[in-house]
Specification:
The structure is a homodimer. Chain A is of the alpha/beta class. Chain A is 47% helix and 15% strand. In chain A, α6 runs antiparallel to α10, α8 crosses α10 and α10 packs across α11. Chain A starts with 14 loop residues before the first helix and ends in a 14-residue tail after the last strand. The model of chain A has no long low-confidence stretch (mean pLDDT 91).
């Protein structure tokens, strides 16, 4: 049923994402449209996407674009967190995209039992790192999920757009707190469009996070709004090379 | 498995609530402690309870007490809504209890597909009726679920305290939006204790709403906090006498 688990540290067969799940490779048709060269694309670190070509066209045509990502504040930044931060900052500069950065304290609670207050403390350090890396905070919206009413409202609204079968097909059998958490993440991703007048959103993530992208695109399709684009970076292996770098 | 359905208009066998589910009758040991006579108790309209005796003792001993109820803003007040309002107002006067009144717009959306904005309009009329009936707004907290961050946060927190088996045993098979809605109602009921320093809360409800009380008491037990008390009024039959009065 499922072999890509966003909450596990195990490596999986990502080839199936291309052959069976509709992910596309980043090719020269896309990279030739980028103004500047960047090691993320030069070195094929960002290697796959969904609808990124449409996002790039939207940005070039003057549409309002956003880049959305987040962090589960369970620990300090590591090289995997930095990779996402580099992408956010690059997309912000390259496309003038407004950055939405979610401190995923609801996921940290659902997945790891970390209280919102503990998350807040770690998040301060995470956000300091993000700013130190060069994010322009004047064109950014950084928030905690548990304090962003609009995101929680969207999670409730989306709960009527999904079925258990849909959730099980994407995530396997999970407890209700994790299902509520993924609906909240769909709220994070669609909030720029639904609440901030953004026309097109791209979500840079590790390839293991694709289940969240698929769920959110399914929900967007049901709502009849633009499906968010995504770009995928290769997962960062742990130092031992046997797991993904995780926290 | 379940024959008491808080969302149905069908009548059910409430005798089982006493014999199998631990509800107790209101008796003279309780009514003798009330300062004033009130038709709600004189006429046995409020006929059953859970831990109301403990709530009354807490109030008499100067503990901070609250009375919590709400309304699904799907229509104008009817005689059933007025009954709950009468109880709120009576408990506010009798015990000096702070009133918490939830506009259950999340339930209205989950159960009836009513948008938060539609709910807001109906709620204005509902709250006007509540105030006209004599609620002292200076000792009350009236809010919409979808705008009360603390209630939504509690729903997320409680989601890790329940299992599907627990929810199914109480409510039967329901979609995820209704399960999220009942966790939110548990948030409504426990917010006075967890966020406002209240020592004891009583929830006056129609007897058909007992599933929500049982769920919330189970969650309170898991959290190790005081279980909320409840009083139950006889359901108000519809004019035809074949269903409960509903909206």
């Amino acid at each position: 049923m499922i072999d890509i688990d966003p909450w596990s540290n195990a490596l999986a067969d990502y080839g199936r994402l291309f052959s069976q799940f509709g992910m596309q490779e980043i090719d020269s048709a896309i990279t030739s449209k980028l103004r500047g060269k960047h090691r993320l694309f030069e070195r094929n670190i960002v290697f796959a996407h969904r609808d990124f070509d449409k996002f790039v066209d939207a940005a070039k045509n003057g549409r309002k674009v956003a880049v959305m990502s987040g962090i589960k504040p369970s620990n300090e930044f590591h090289l995997g967190s930095k990779l996402t931060a580099d992408e956010l900052i690059y997309y912000q500069k390259e496309f003038g995209a407004k950055v939405f950065y979610a401190i995923a304290d609801i996921e940290a609670y659902a997945d790891n039992g970390i209280s919102f207050e503990e998350s807040r403390k770690v998040a301060v350090s995470n956000v300091a790192d993000l700013l130190a890396l060069g994010l322009d905070e004047k064109n950014a919206c950084i928030y905690r999920q548990s304090k962003e009413m609009r995101v929680m409202n969207l999670a409730y609204i989306f709960s009527k757009k999904v079925t258990y079968n849909m959730l099980r097909a994407i995530y396997g059998e999970r407890d209700i707190s994790l299902y509520m958490s993924v609906l909240t993440q769909a709220g994070d991703i669609l909030m720029p469009q639904l609440e901030f007048g953004i026309d097109y959103t791209v979500v840079p993530v590790g390839v293991d996070q694709d289940p969240h992208i698929r769920l959110t695109r399914d929900i967007a399709a049901k709502l009849g709004i633009t499906l968010p684009a995504a770009t995928y970076h290769r997962f960062m292996k742990s130092l031992s090379g046997t797991e993904k770098m995780s926290k």
